[in-house]
Amino acid sequence: MNFPLQRLPLPLQLSRRIVAAAAFALCSGPALAVDPFVVKDIRVEGIQRTEAGTVFSYLPVRVGDTFNDEKGAASIKALYATGLFKDVRIEAEGNVLVVQVEERPSIAAVEFSGTKEFDRDTLVKALKEIGLAETRIYDKALLDRAEQELKRQYLSRGLYGAQITTTVTPIERNRVNISFAVDEGTAARIREINFVGNKSFSEKELRAMLKLTTPGWFTWFSKSDQYSRQKLTGDIEAIRSFYLNRGYLEMQIESTQVSITPDRKDIYVTFGISEGEKFTVSDIKVEGETLGREEELRALIELKKGEVYNGEKLQGSIKKITERMGNFGYAFANVNASPEINREKREVAFTVLVDPGKRVYVRRINIAGNTRTRDEVVRREFRQYESSWYDGDKIRLSRDRVDRLGYFTEVNIETPEVPGTPDQVDVNMTVAEKPTGAITIGAGFSSDEKLTLLGSISQQNVFGTGNTLSVDVNTSRRYRTLALSQTNPYFTDDGVSRTYEVFLRTVRPPLIYNGDFRVQTLGGNIRFGVPFTEVDRVFFGVGYERTEVNTYFNSPALYQKYTNDFGNGTDARTNSFPFTVAWQRDNRDSALIPTTGRYQRANLEVAPAGSLRYYRTTYQQQYFRPMNAARTSVLALNGEVNYGKGLFGQTYPVFKNYFAGGIGSVRGFSGSSLQVSPVTGVDPTGGQARLIANAELQFPVPGADRTLRWFTFFDAGQVFNLDAGEKIQTANLRYSVGLGISWISPVGPLKLSFGSPLNAKDADRKQAFQFQLGTGF
Cα–Cα distance between 397 and 331 in angstroms, integer? Predict the structure, then answer.
């Protein structure tokens, strides 16, 4: 800034006058005063990026105003306050006011190097929150704050030795590049975790509650031995909950000391605990505005008289009562438990106070994020309606039904209060689309079969309509397929679905088998699905199949017997009219990554007419249970039973046999290779009955997409050739264990597994690594 302290020579006064530009000039006395004049024009000089209109908008002077010392000071103060300029001069040429500015540089780019602990997006977001970002005005003070923010981020991860070097590089057009070079150093490890004041529980029991740990075998992966302020806060709550759930109502964590060694490598954490006394529940009452449902609400209370106090049960009871009130339209019900403590008897009584507030109804249902899926496809799954009373159960059911569509990776619902209207809420659903087209690819590798491949293409949400169109094309020698199917889930407005399918399938044995045969089936079917409840659906269908079987001198005995029974000994042509009746129940919370609920289906296929007569039955059940409160770790169980038999004395068709082995049944064994008592050199031909059981423990991958999970598994299964005299016996089951990874990839669900058989026989074919794209369980 330039502040003139004296008058210019008289000749220059007539052509150019410099006007006072600071409070100092205003306070210098009458000798420094500027003669007021009427502004005829205003000119801005020195701007490069800033629009002249921006400068005019901040100036407190307009053309036609009388300019004086006070307005000069106010003008400079206003322009400096914008933060856009590092120097401002105001001069006059005749009656033209000249505003000369020098702009602050803008930030062209923010770069990071040496950052391994954080990804770039995380750091950019953290700096943007304090005002340092691309296109923003460069400010040295802000840069210093940014350095401190980066250090804070690293300290929160236990990286106390992190060093940050900042470089500011000027470039053209008055811009700068800012570069942060980070030397993260070595993360400080937690050397010891100690407890002081604990009498009822050992340090070992308390440490088991913590996410923070001392170094161990797997901490290199979990990083649980690295100090984190967020983890420490969570551990404090975990310890408090541990005591509260065991009756210690007045337990307090009086202190938490974190100390670091001078070399900044080791950290010592000490918790100071005051346990207090253990309390028993003497009584629990429900009072307040219960809407005449006191007994119903009382039944929701998990904590009972005479039990040791349990904070988790009490909070769970309050949540259940709040949700039940929400089912009656009271979305903002206030439920609190007031304790009455008797320290002499070590007892506590609770009074649960219920304040339902005003009854609320839903004004609007808003859907966002469905960039591809049509609005009606989502809305038709809603069971909560606009202009109806708020119902918490219906809103949760609506969320689950949308999630079970399988079109979205994220489905979230919020119910904000309508501003200024306490008895109305909006239901806002936000979804994240996923690619609904899938290229299904299966592959495996073994020393016998080498690499095997199969595939198909399907689209579950054609043009965002919710209809499914699938084209299954497979040109492999073993499974040559051309199939086209189309499903309309809302063939009628009340949710009756319709599915068409036409197909041509040719099946031959793998090259590694000794025998050869050929089965070609041409057919089609139509099926309808009728909803009976929100989670139950019954299917009815009819189809037609024309099958040709060709055998050769080296064909398996079962296939030769089939062509003898239904043909001329080498060829057989049959037709059948299979009718299908099925039942399905699905109350999982998600079709893609379920964490809770069950999926059940029972299917009966009967072919009573035609030259081929048989029936097939299937029953499958899947069960999902979260293993932690966050529902990130899940136990997934799957069981399936299959059985088939010929009708009216006919032999069950061999090409309808069931197979086991490989991903989707018993991992660790080659696909479709299991047999109860295979004879060396004889190819597996499946069986009329099958038992399959799977168990998975699924875990999230830290810092990754929530659909990416790793799992451990235990599989069991076998097929039984009943026509050959085999009996269904669990002693003949094959077992395997292993590890795997599953991911909802952009081209469909992907599952990879590495399995190891537990009781393989000499004739069994093993296959350790397997993957499939398009699997469900």
Answer: 16
